[in-house]
Amino acid sequence: MTNAPATPSPEAILLVGGKGTRLRPMTVHTPKPMVPAAGVPFLTHQLARARAAGVEHIVLATSYLAEVFEPYFGDGSSLGLHLEYVTEEEPLGTGGAIRNVASRLRSGPDDPVLIFNGDILTGLDIRALVDNHRTTGADVSLHLTRVPDPRAYGLVPTDELGRVTAFLEKPQTPEEIVTDQINAGAYVFNRSVIDSIPADRPVSVERETFPGLLAEGVHLQGMVDSTYWLDLGTPQAFVRGSADLVLGRAPSPAVPGRCGDRLVLDSASVALDAKLTGGTVIGRQARVGAGARIDGSTVLEGAIVEEGAQVRDSLVGAGARIGARTVLQGAVVGDGALVGPDNELRDGVRVWCGADIPAGAVRFSSDQ
């Protein structure tokens, strides 16, 4: 009895070209996929999960601050991967970015190619998505997830066999909510479909490619996987995603330490009576002073949180300084910013990179 030949591993495209405008000031100096989550650039978690699912070759579609990716990841060998980089000279949209890297793919016309958005944290079973794509004979497969309130998303209804029947814009009325299934940002394309996307012009895969393929009768399959899923597009979501990685709620083999209430990286200094909870991350060479309380937050490399400060659900940028007794609640402090003692910043406040807020200048503010 002879063994059947092993199914070749799919290759993947990672879309990491976005400007991360909604995440500013976190993305002023750093592209969104390179912002640290649970102690390493967020992209590291995506690459590690793809490798764990058997992917070996990944092409990164870069654009904004493209020059920072390759110096960090190199050829990918440290992660057991072969990485290539393609930079868009002009923004091409999601579909255009996929088409722009097609020449780097090795797949044949009928082979599956995984595609991931660079701002989604998910527990998706990647192997199951590829297997489902193959067994259903689909041309394109989409990871779908169910959300309690789908009004902020485009809806993707499917028939009883999981075949996609429509792509619906964000519903405006209760009657338009025909499903709770949404596009979760991970796909499998047959290589021939990628080659059919128009080249050298902007194309939206969500607004142009998918509806166009459906209208042509192409087989688009949906696979619902409602494990952990989070769009990291806002600072609050990004901070929550980092905390969930540390807590073990979101799976990743790339978390540099054991899961738990806190992750303190090498060379960080934390006072003995400081309290770190809720998946808090303290970056390298950061310092946390006596009596400080930090919950569900990220303190990046070289930042200082002085004595008695309280930081909850917030991000403190690299080299920033939070003064004594200052309170941050749902705030973002940009790289190198100085927030003096006895301030109170809440409810989505964003402090720009390099800003200087004097002692006691802000007792309460909001982003409204």
Word description of this protein:
Residues 12-244 form the Nucleotidyl transferase domain. This is NDP-sugar synthase. InterPro entries: GMPPB_C (IPR056729), Mannose-1P_guanyltransferase (IPR050486), NTP_transferase_dom (IPR005835), Nucleotide-diphossugar_trans (IPR029044). By secondary structure, this protein is an alpha/beta fold. It has seven helices and 28 strands. The chain has helices at residues 42-52, 69-73, 93-100, 126-136, 191-196, 205-215, 235-247; strands spanning 11-15, 36-37, 40-41, 57-62, 82-87, 112-117, 120-122, 140-146, 181-190, 220-224, 229-231, 262-264, 269-270, 275-277, 280-282, 287-288, 293-295, 298-299, 304-305, 310-312, 315-316, 321-322, 327-329, 332-333, 338-339, 344-346, 350-351, 356-357. A seven-stranded mixed β-sheet has the order 5-4-1-6-9-8-10, with helices on both faces. Strands 12-15-18-21-24-27 form a six-stranded parallel β-sheet. The chain has a six-stranded parallel β-sheet with strand order 13-16-19-22-25-28, with no helix packed on it. Helix 2 links the parallel strand 4 (57-62) and strand 5 (82-87). Helix 3 (93-100) packs across helix 6 (205-215). The longest helix is centred in the middle third of the chain and has 13 residues, at 235-247. The protein is elongated, with a radius of gyration of 22 Å. Residues 1-5 have low confidence and may be disordered.
